[in-house]
Structure formats: structure tokens, C-alpha cells
Design brief:
Number of strands: 3
CATH class of one domain: Alpha Beta
CATH topology of one domain: Topoisomerase I, Chain A, domain 3
Radius of gyration: 21 Å
Largest sheet: 3 strands, antiparallel
Number of helices: 7
Distance between the termini: 71 Å
């Protein structure tokens, strides 16, 4: 993989893919470097880009997931955002850098070793530490939780969030984290409304 900062590139590509694809880390990365199984793990051939000159989306074939009890797999679409925070541009840069290794697990380190969940988690926690942010708040589901929360905050319908995250039920609602500041603001909103009628009696 030829890149000025190959490990940063793969780290960024995994993070943006996990977030915009509502992925669990186990759907993208291996539990250990020796655990690669092409029948179940994300491989080079599972990624399809509609156009390298003017890409609008990337299609990721998910061979197996936690909710896929019958092993049917799923096709996840990642759209081009047109901004610096874009999974399509990240994947394009990564695949360009990996031209000499177009096979096997999709996410590889510059040494050719598959990226594991442990390696990725350790890198993210190091970044959080450098930023002075709590490392314990990060776990394997953080990108999936963050995606659901962000989607809800920008007004994407619950039904669409359920589709994007491939949830089979409304269980996805437990992933949506409302900031404490927003919860606190609800009291002001409620106090501005007309008080309910209590039959002439007032609460003490």
C-alpha cells in the first residue's frame, strides 16, 4: 500500500465506512489476523464503486451480520457527500493505495496484515486520549450508535434509520442518544405551554 500515511488512511476509511454504513465493527474487521474467511468476512471483491471518474456511491456487500439469521447477506449503499467527510472519497483513496494487493480481506495494514477490531479500537482510544476525551465511552458499537443518533438529529425518518441500520424492529431507538443539553431544554419548552386544567385545584 503506497501512501504517505497508510495507517491513517485505513483508519479514516474504516471510521467513515462504519459511520455512514451504520456498521458493527465485526462486520468490517476481523477478530484476529488469522481469522479471515472469504465466505463471511468483508473482502476486496465485496466493494463496488459506480465510477472512478465521477463516483456517486459505493456498494458494500455484507455477507453476514448479527441480524441475518438466514445468511442472505445485504447490500449497503454509501453515498458521496461532496464534503471532506465522505465514505466514497475515503474508499477511493484507500483502494487506489491498495492497487498492489487487490484480493483477500478488504482492510489491510501497510504490512499486509488484516486490520483487527482490537487494533482499530486501540487506535481510536489513543486519538480520544490525545484529544482529552473519555476513552471508556468508546466501544465497538459507537459508530453505529453515532450514525443513528446523528440521523435522528438531522431529521431522517425513523423508518429510514431502521432501513439504513438494517434493524428488524424498533429496537434501533435504544441506540439514539439525546444530548443532556437537549433533554434539559425540554423543561423550558414544556413550561412555555399552557398549563393543564386541574378542575380549579392547583398542585402544591
Amino acid at each position: 500500500m503506497s501512501s504517505p500515511n497508510p495507517e491513517k488512511l485505513v483508519l479514516w476509511t474504516i471510521a467513515s465506512t462504519a459511520f455512514f454504513g451504520f456498521f458493527r465493527l465485526g462486520e468490517l474487521l476481523l477478530p484476529s489476523s488469522a481469522a479471515y474467511d472469504p465466505a463471511t468476512c468483508l473482502s476486496w471483491g465485496d466493494i463496488a464503486i459506480d465510477s472512478r471518474d465521477n463516483p456517486s456511491m459505493v456498494q458494500v456487500r455484507l455477507r453476514k451480520s448479527k441480524c441475518d439469521q438466514f445468511g442472505k447477506g445485504a447490500q449497503i449503499i454509501l453515498g458521496n457527500t461532496g464534503t471532506r467527510l465522505c465514505p466514497v472519497s475515503a474508499i477511493l483513496r484507500y483502494t487506489e493505495a491498495r492497487k498492489s494487493q487487490p484480493q483477500g480481506p478488504f482492510f489491510l495494514l501497510s504490512s499486509g496484515v488484516p486490520v483487527t477490531k482490537m487494533w482499530f479500537t486501540a487506535q481510536i482510544r489513543d486519538i480520544l486520549r490525545l484529544l482529552g476525551l473519555p476513552q471508556d465511552d468508546y466501544a465497538g458499537h459507537s459508530f453505529r450508535i453515532g450514525a443513528a443518533t446523528t440521523a435522528a438529529m438531522v431529521g431522517i425518518a425513523d423508518s429510514s434509520i431502521q432501513t439504513l441500520g438494517r434493524w428488524q424492529s424498533a429496537a434501533f431507538l435504544q441506540y439514539i442518544r439525546t444530548p443532556a443539553s437537549q433533554l434539559a431544554s425540554f423543561a423550558r419548552t414544556m413550561s412555555a405551554s399552557s398549563p393543564p386544567t386541574t378542575g380549579g385545584r392547583s398542585e402544591p
